[in-house]
Amino acid sequence: MSRNNAGAFLGGLVIGGVAGLVTGMVLAPRSGQETRRVLRKTAAALPELTTDLSDNLQLQAQRWQGILQTQWQDTWERLHMAINAGLEAGRQEHQRQQNRG
Fold it and tell me: I want to staple 7 with a disulfide (CB 3.0 to 4.6 A). Which of 39, 60, 72, 78 is the partner?
């Protein structure tokens, strides 16, 4: 798996795990009191899971920001060099035309 998809995978894993846990508890053959107790414990864990997911997404966003900024700078530098090369080639051709005529 590429590093680019690691954040998406972890986010999906957490969300899928929580969804599976809740679904399993709702469908499990337990007494109402026991099910409510398990749901309370699960609900108590949700803020921590949400914080972990938020932190992970924030880290991934920062990483992507750095990657995109670097790519943009590289592209801008290449464009600048290409424009300068084109201008220089135009000047040289203009000079050759003046020297001929």
Answer: 60
Q: How many residues does the chain have?
A: 101
**Distance between CA atoms of 40 and 46, rounded to whole angstroms?**
10
Show the tokens assigned to 80.
């600048």
Structure tokens that stand for 24 in this block: 């399993």
Measured distance CA(67)–CA(98) in Å, rounded = 47
Mean pLDDT across the stretch 39-48? 83
Token duo for residue 54: 């938020």
C-beta of residue 1 within 8 angstroms of C-beta of residue 29: no
pTM: 0.45
The tens digit of pLDDT for each residue in 6-40 reads 777 777 888 888 888 778 777 777 677 887 887 78
